[in-house]
Amino acid sequence: MEKQLIIKLHKNFEDCAHEKDGVEFWYARELQELLGYDEWRNFENVINKAKIACKTVKQAVSDHFVDVNKTIPMTKEC
């Protein structure tokens, strides 16, 4: 892979990062797009394989993957 492409991908990955209470994290839906997956079901397979890899190397999946649901602010009706 070309060095410039690697630099670009790294920057895109870092630009996609979020931080809360000193912990850096990424949302899967944002990574899905960044990594070029058009359909969630295909990217979900990748996530599941990554979870299996964590278990294989005796890492706690919960230390690396947290289920999160983003909510969209709704207008209040009176």
Number of strands: 2
Shape: globular
- Main beta sheet, described? 2 strands, antiparallel
Q: Report the portion of residues in β strands.
A: 5-15%
Number of helices: 3
As for the number of domains, it is: 1
Class from helix and strand fractions: mainly alpha
Low confidence ranges = none
Alpha carbon gap, first and last residue: 57 Å
Order of helices and strands: HEEHH
Q: Output mean pLDDT.
A: 88
Can you list the strand order of the major beta sheet?
Answer: 1-2
Helix content: 40-55%
Rg to the nearest angstrom? 16 Å
Describe it:
This protein is mostly helical and 78 residues long. The protein has one domain (3-63). The chain has 3 helices and 2 strands, in the order αββαα. A hairpin with a 2-residue loop joins strand 1 and strand 2. The protein is globular, with a radius of gyration of 16 Å. The protein starts with a helix and ends in a 22-residue tail after the last helix.
Give the tags.
3 helices, 47% helix, mainly alpha, 78 residues, two-stranded antiparallel sheet
Short description:
The chain has helices at residues 3-15, 28-34, 40-56; strands spanning 18-20, 23-25. The protein is mainly alpha-helical and 78 residues long.
